[in-house]
Amino acid sequence: MRTERFNRRVAWVREPGGTDVHEIRAETLPPLTHDAVLVRVEAVGLNHVETLVRRGTYAVKIPCPYAAGIEGSGVVIDRGPDADLEPGTRVAWTAVFGCCATVVIAPASRLARLPDGLDFEAGASLSHAGMTAAGLARHWPLAAGATVVVWGAAGGVGQVLTALLESRGVRVIGIASGERVAAVRAAGAACAVDRTRENVLQAVRDQTNGRGVAAVFDPVGSATYRTSLGLLAPRGCLVNYGQLSGSLPDVDLEDVMEAGSVFVTKYGPKAGVVGQHEIGSLVAETLQVVAARSLPVPIAGRFPLEQVAEAYRALEAVPPGKILILPNQPVG
Ligand SMILES: NC(=O)c1ccc[n+]([C@@H]2O[C@H](COP(=O)([O-])OP(=O)(O)OC[C@H]3O[C@@H](n4cnc5c(N)ncnc54)[C@H](OP(=O)(O)O)[C@@H]3O)[C@@H](O)[C@H]2O)c1
């Protein structure tokens, strides 16, 4: 067993609430054992779910106080006796709790090697999306040749989901707003619809000879729910995975029948389609798909660790790109 101990600065959530409940603490980490590795954190990617958890409004509760951060990227600097990642390896991750810090300890199996074509900012932007996209793609079985709609296809999850489905032969109609349709095409979508200028229902009907699609992936919620039902082919499936526009309406079975006896599901961690042990490998797989497509990774803001509250405030404005914390960068 290694006995060396490491110090770090880390963002903590003191109590449930708004962004002002964050504070920076100094702490000493335990020694590295088994397959644990110590990673110097180059970038932390912020996710909407962290806001819900911090406010105490999410199904998954984390008792306060807790160390913030779930997604990031960095370089392995030391390892426990059973870890198979060499110091110097560039890695990215999600579900590494408490990674909003200068260094973090994680099991090697939870980390994905960062492909050559991706930098640290891309790794910290795409890993959580990669795990989510991999889970969504498993949640509703889709044969090669099926056609689906992806809302928010220029967004974090939407872009990776589009690339992943297309790599498996699924035809994606991606929806985005304005100039962001270019990112939808870059992700590999067969067709990009600009929701600010086009009638989404009509555009999807035109693309499917009036039949509709096998599945709709929707992170928006109330604002798109009815349209999403209307986009489905008979017995298709609406897979909601977020509520960016507010809480979801109650499901009315009459509506479901009228839409073609469709299925409606809300995807989340409790779906059980992604095992804890495979998170690292699933992230690695999706990062490879994304690297092969050279996707643009829009960054909406970069913050030093000391400005953690400002960073999470920027996230709440739903910016058109990723908010990053760069824990080892000096305050600028
Ligand atoms: N269930 C899970 O396991 C899981 C995991 C990860 C994320 N999520 C959730 O998934 C959602 C998306 O996350 P993300 O990181 O991809 O967010 P994001 O990068 O902000 O992308 C979301 C996209 O949705 C589109 N959008 C926003 N409001 C809309 C509206 N009213 N109508 C139509 N489109 C709208 C926007 O694209 P355009 O303006 O270009 O259309 C935006 O880019 C969040 O709610 C997050 O909490 C869930």
Question: How would you explain this protein's 3D organization?
Answer:
- By secondary structure, the chain is α/β, with parallel strands linked by helices.
- It folds into two domains: 7-117 and 294-326, Alpha-Beta Complex (Quinone Oxidoreductase, Chain A, domain 1), CATH 3.90.180.10; 138-271, Rossmann fold (3-Layer(aba) Sandwich), CATH 3.40.50.
- Helices cover 27% and strands 27% of the residues.
- It has nine helices and 16 strands.
- The chain has helices at residues 48-55, 120-139, 156-167, 181-186, 200-207, 225-231, 253-258, 279-293, 308-316; strands spanning 7-13, 22-28, 36-45, 66-67, 71-79, 90-93, 103-107, 111-113, 147-150, 171-176, 191-194, 213-218, 232-240, 263-266, 299-304, 322-326.
- The strands form three sheets. Strands 3, 5, 6, 7, 8, 15 and 16 form a seven-stranded mixed beta sheet that branches.
- Strand 1 (7-13) and strand 2 form a beta hairpin.
- Helix 2 packs across helix 3 and helix 3 (156-167) packs across helix 8 (279-293).
- It is globular and about 65 Å long.
- The mean pLDDT is 95.
- NADP nicotinamide-adenine-dinucleotide phosphate binds at residues 48-49, 128, 132, 151-152, 154-158, 176-177, 180, 195, 219-220, 223-224, 241-242, 244-245, 267-269, 318.
- NADP nicotinamide-adenine-dinucleotide phosphate binds next to helix 1, helix 2 and helix 3.
